[in-house]
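Bug #77: duplicate submission created two jobs. Keeping one. Sequence:
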Amino acid sequence: MQLLPTEDEVVELLRETGALRTGHFVYPDGSYTDEYLGMPHVMADYKNAKVFSVALARKIRQNPELKAMIGHLSVVCPATGGLPVAYGVVEALGARKVYWAEADDSRRSQKFREFVAPQPGEKVLLVDDIFRTGRKLSHLKSLVEGYGAEVVGLAVMVYQPWPDAPTFDPLPMYYLAKIDSFTAREIPEGIAEKDIVKVWS
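Kept job's structure:
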């Protein structure tokens, strides 16, 4: 695979590794999709993670404004899925540092660790492995801006937006592949319970 794979090549690798599966999948909130994407299946292989990270970094570098600030750019991600993406992109870009936000249990919003957070005026790129609902990145953007830092763009390995997902215009967003799956807030009629696979993320 080339250092800048095509979208078709990315999707093919996702299917080959079992990261992208077709079927009937239901998330914990009851939402339904006919294609489930689990990035750990492809990112567990360091070679794949490296190719994806370098490719995403190259897309980011194509933006002259972001390229000009790389030496001062920090990367922020949600834990835990965004961490391998963040470190891979920072290494490939030559960016400044990585921050991550995490929740101490499922009922709390994500937050930064004590004394490890973006500084006022710091330029920040938000990254994650998958974009689906956009909730995590929306919260992360608000969190970063609450510290006085400036979000200058977003990057994800795969863009799989739900119909009501937010946009972050005018901020640039980068991704290696877009996957248009059928998604719904409820299970469609006519699907047998035995055919449904419950997934947790």
